[in-house]
Amino acid sequence: MQNFEGIWEQVKEIVSEKVSQISYETWIRDLEAIGFRAGAAVLYTSSAYHRDLIKNRFIDVITESFQEVLGRECEVRIVIKDELEGENAPEKHTSPIEDTVNGEVETENFFTFENFIVGNSNKFAHAASLAVANNPGGAYNPLFIYGNSGLGKTHLLKAIKNEIEKNNPKMKVAFVTCEDFTNEFLELLHTGRAPEFRTHYRPVDVLLIDDIQFIAGKLSTEEEFLNTFNALYDKNKQIVMTSDRAPKEIQSLADRLRTRFEVGLMADIQQPDYETRVAIIKRKGKLLDLDIPQEVAEFIATRLKNNTRQLEGSVKKLTAYHRLSGEPLSLSMAQNAIKDILTEDAEASVSEEKVLEEISRTMFISVEDICGKKQTANIARARQVAAYVLREVTNSSTKTIGDILGGKDHSTVIYYLRKIEKSMQTNNKLKMTVNDIVKNIKGRS
């Protein structure tokens, strides 16, 4: 009998013929096959927003396609992390340590103000977020939270959502990443259904948007978000945004958006100090039913300094070592738990795929054209930018860059680099775009 993954591949082929290409690639292609459960076909996505959108817009076509493949009626369920319990997720070939660590899933209920460790580095952002959650639309509007990746911005955003929904269940709260916001708008725009987008976001009482920096340079999406922002702001509806940098540092962001972001309260989050890092480690251990000795917590805190995500990851791995070995917690066990993280920090590099995808996304040129032979002005410019950014963020040689860009020789890559550097000296908009691309890539790596 054919396995579920094979069936799902056939279903996707049928679905791809029934919906637009951008709809398929944005919403359906990356759904993960779980299996048949109680007669229903179960598919997985990591985003509740993604799940709800599919249920509202694509569930009928997916169900019909399953029925075509199976020759019988079949219910289709789309699930997220906290719904996977009892669904038996697909087998993954990982080590016992990885299985144990990956099994520690943080549901949406984890993201509360009580579970957020407050220290000198984040207490202002925490206080502002709590004030907004207790008085949406009447405290700080808009609230703009910024800081490097992994410091707790998304936690605060989800804590606001959970607190408002708990205290004001009749309020309409929309949480969305900037990437999903952009993809949804472009998909509806290309299919002539832009009014549907407006009816989705403009009636809400609270709009929470994560990683707003990724909207910069996308003119049509900037325009739509500006209109949405104005419509909500004029009605005193609460808006909260997060970003990896302050509005003034998002170089290619339209000035009229920047001024609106700055009209409210801006709160930054810095790297956690030593005392806060120790507290985060102890707190995370407690949530995992692990009493971490003070010396172990201090050992980890002195070596992992970059962000909260690293600290929580190290505690998960420490928990796995402890449970699987049955041995008491010790400094040597902690050293084993963090060695991979330390190695990742030392050796982390940005892949060429990430560079090309970001340039494609920002400059609206396909990766195939960037690495191809077409010579139109906009494609040639994107290719020059690609050569420059590859050198900046990957430290690749000119030969490697030439190979990445479709087999260009050394002298051609040198020409690209000189051309783009000269252009950036006189074209400030181009310079800001390139700098923004570099920052976005480094922020995602």
Strand tally is 8
CATH homologous superfamily annotation of the largest domain: P-loop containing nucleotide triphosphate hydrolases
Overall pLDDT:
83
Major sheet attributes:
5 strands, parallel
Helix content range: 55-70%
Shape: globular
The chain-level structural class is: alpha/beta
Radius of gyration: 24 Å
Number of separate structural domains? 4
Low-pLDDT regions: 86-95, 97-105
The CATH architecture of the largest domain can be given as: 3-Layer(aba) Sandwich
How is this structure best described in words?
It is a single chain. Helix 10 links the parallel strand 6 and strand 7. This protein has four domains: 80 residues, DnaA, N-terminal domain (GMP Synthetase, Chain A, domain 3, 2-Layer Sandwich), CATH 3.30.300; 161 residues, Rossmann fold, CATH 3.40.50.300; 74 residues, Helicase, Ruva Protein, domain 3 (Orthogonal Bundle), CATH 1.10.8.60; 93 residues, Chromosomal Replication Initiator Protein Dnaa, Chain: A (Orthogonal Bundle). The strands form two sheets. The protein has a five-stranded parallel sheet, with helices on both faces. The protein has a three-stranded mixed sheet with strand order 1-2-3. It contains 21 helices and eight strands. About 4% of the residues have low confidence. By secondary structure, it is α/β, with parallel strands linked by helices.
